[in-house]
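Z., the sequence and structure:
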Amino acid sequence: MSQADAFGRLVASEIGMTFRRRRNIALLALIALAPLAIGVAVRVSTPPPGSDGPQFLNQITTNGLFLVFTALTVSVPLLIPLLVGVVAGDSIAGEAGTGTLRYLLVVPVTRSRLLAAKSISVVSYVVAAILAVAVVGTLAGAGLFGLHGPTLLSGSTVSLAEGLVRAAEMAGYIVLSLTGFIAIGMFITTLTEVPIAAMAATLGVAIIASVLDSVPQLGSFRGLLFTHHWTAFTDILSQNVDWPTLWHYLLLQLAYVAIFGAAAWARFTTQDITS
């Protein structure tokens, strides 16, 4: 068997294992139910104009497509970090804790490719989570409120087709904006053989970054935090999307991927696997 074939089978195996774990299935179901819960809550008790709540909440009753935008806005800072913390934190530490990691190393692929395969499986899970929010939000919005062409932040209205395209673009931006955090989680999981510790540490990093991001006294330093531009996807609902700025934000995530990806590789390829 060639190295490429072995790597492909390893990636498929890692993705399958990630999606077969009951805990991961439960978390995926939980985040998929978020837009439905928001939609039902709004349907039962419509918030008055100008009420506090997530961005786009007041527009849901007039257009179910805004349920997708609201669900994504809520999920990114609250639910997605939990999913990343659990799945990324468990990816290697969990194998080491159960004693199966050394058996994985018998597969005819290098440790670098094993780390890459596990990273791909985590990214795949995050993509599935974001897709679940978008799809369930669209279906729930259509059933509860109906779908129409959305009114953009500038006040102009676009077609429903363009609104769906922009929702897809928002989902894509979210996935890319989480890559830096995923790289951090992959680094942390190489540091311990206790999966709970890796999960807690990964989630703790996101919480600390979010807290620091809310302190205005830190000034421009906040722009260097991987959480700072997580919700910048709302700019996609502008008439003229400032794509250069959004791509600039994603370059920050690329820097995190490069730094923590290299750190994870250096740690994993040199550590002594004893379990």
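The chain has ten helices and no strands. The CA atoms of residues 86 and 199 lie 5 Å apart.

Let me know what you think.
H.
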